[in-house]
Design goal:
single chain; alpha/beta; Aspartate Aminotransferase, domain 1; 2 domains; three-stranded antiparallel sheet; 14 helices; 12 strands; globular; aminotransferase
């Protein structure tokens, strides 16, 4: 079962894929996707053609050298390429509102410690670092987690429980590379890169579960226990706090999830990159969340945590992240890192050590939460004024999961809405990229994420307002001219290539 996907039933449970379902999906595909220019552009992009359906079409962009297959791009990469086709370039990015990039603003914010402006370069740092990372940084990570989440517990993290990796994706890839032939559970919607990980590492057989707005995208732990028994799940991957819905599993729910992993011998891989982005209603700033709080024995409990400087410390360009888990896992990750990525940047690892001081971390957390909560509230208010009330407002992360289904067609799907905003120099991410669909079989129009876009309030406030103004212009145009004004006249990606040639 080399990476084959399982479709989602209406009840949200996984069901086997039968040939009849494939035939019906082909019929639905041609009834819907072929009628949408935005969807045709997406399908024509290398790596995004539907798979497992008939008839197959040949995409010249996917015909490469023998044995090479396009994996398909993540949402941010696809959207950036489409933006370039519409005139976007990083040299002129100030003219655009990028509400798609999954990155926080990196400049100074009120009451936060000063931003790093230089790094030392001792001669030793010019050498390769170990594939597990610099020992002093590993110790700093272990000490910070013990301080934040494990005070008074007998089992404590040490440097041997930490592996430093060059970015979160590298961490996930290292973990995936050492996983055997297993059924891997994940939820929809979730972080777009999981699609590529589950597609590339075919020993992980993906088993999806659909979460819904009625339950505020909460993971049903009781259902998870049942799935473990009936489907033989051995690995579960999830972001917490959750990208893109902005929800979080914490307290007793998170404890129950960790307990389930321990009691059922299921490895729980927790992507905790947004663990500081918590927005309390009672002004109690400085709290964060991690499954590390509920682990009994750090060397026996099958819980793997991936985190780093990218989001919480607002240093995405550093690519200094870590995997936290049992010692024998770290040994395996050292070996997989030796052939996957070779290790993280040595000088930046050294420069990261003082940033993990607990007092500095608390100052960072409080400043971040106050600043980003203000931006969240501002964006939610403006969206509501535009008639776009968010069904499930984010309580964490810096994302808003916006449902468009009440808008007039064809603006009521994420891909078309995205393309129309490109004309207004604004970038968002269509929801289909968060429908983790490794085999790409599912008809886009039947995706549970089809009517959504993800808006990021990570950028500075002026950029957020620029993007919200653009959304307002599109909605005003829809009210004035109707649906016939949308869904066509999109620039093809080849235009973006020509513009890149000019820049080079």
């Amino acid at each position: 079962m080399s990476g084959a996907s399982t479709p989602i039933s209406r009840s949200g449970r996984s069901t086997p894929l039968h040939f009849r379902d494939v035939v019906h999906d082909v019929i639905r595909h041609y009834r819907h996707e072929k009628d949408s220019e935005a969807h045709r552009i997406f399908r024509q992009s290398a790596g995004h053609k539907p798979k497992g359906t008939l008839p197959q079409t040949v995409n010249p962009d996917e015909e490469t050298i023998p044995g090479i297959e396009h994996p398909g791009s993540t949402g941010v990469i696809y959207c950036s390429d489409r933006a370039m086709a519409n005139g976007f370039s990083y040299a002129s990015s100030h003219e655009w509102a990028n509400l798609g990039q999954g990155a926080p603003e990196v400049g100074q914010i009120p009451d936060a410690p000063p931003r790093p402006t230089s790094i030392p370069l001792p001669e030793d740092s010019l050498e390769y670092a170990p594939t597990t990372g610099v020992k002093a940084l590993r110790e700093a990570v272990a000490d910070l987690y013990n301080h934040q989440y494990r005070q008074g517990k007998l089992s404590q993290y040490t440097y041997e429980n930490v592996c430093i990796v060059p970015g979160g994706r590298a961490g996930l890839s290292r973990v995936a590379a050492v996983v055997g032939d297993v059924y891997c559970s994940y939820q929809i919607p979730d972080y777009t890169a999981y699609d590529q990980v589950l597609s590339a590492f075919k020993r992980l057989v993906p088993v999806p579960t659909a979460l819904d707005a009625e339950n505020k995208y909460r993971l049903d732990v009781q259902q998870m226990k049942k799935d473990i028994r009936t489907q033989g799940l051995e690995v579960m991957i999830a972001s917490n706090p959750r990208n893109p819905t902005g929800q979080v599993i914490e307290g007793e729910d998170l404890k129950s999830l960790v307990d389930t992993a321990r009691d059922s011998s299921v490895t729980l891989i927790m992507d905790e990159f947004y663990s500081w982005y918590m927005y309390p209603e009672n002004e109690e700033y400085g709290r964060s969340v991690s499954s590390a709080e509920f682990i009994d024995n750090v060397n026996q409990d099958p819980v793997v945590i991936v985190n780093g400087l990218t989001k919480n410390w607002r240093l995405p360009g550093w690519r200094v992240c870590w995997v936290l888990g049992p010692k024998n896992l770290i040994t395996a990750l050292s070996q997989s890192g030796s052939f996957l990525d070779g290790g993280a940047n040595h000088p930046l690892q050294l420069a990261a050590i003082p940033l993990l001081d607990p007092d500095r971390v608390m100052q960072e957390k409080i400043a971040l939460q106050k600043h980003f909560k203000h931006k969240r509230d501002h964006v939610l208010k403006r969206l509501e004024e535009l008639g776009l009330k968010v069904e499930v407002p984010p309580v964490a992360t810096f994302y808003i999961w916006l449902n468009l289904e009440h808008l007039p067609a064809p603006l009521n799907n994420g891909l078309t809405f995205f393309e129309e905003l490109l004309k207004e120099k604004t970038i968002v991410i269509p929801g289909i990229f968060f429908d983790i669909n490794p085999a790409h079989r599912r008809n886009l129009f039947h995706s549970p994420c089809h009517h959504f876009v993800r808006l990021s309030f990570g950028p500075p406030l002026k950029d957020l307002d620029k993007g919200l103004d653009a959304i307002g212009r599109v909605l005003k145009k829809a009210k004035k001219e109707g649906g016939h004004a949308f869904g066509h006249s999109y620039k093809k990606s080849v235009d973006g290539v020509h513009q890149l040639d000019k820049l080079i």
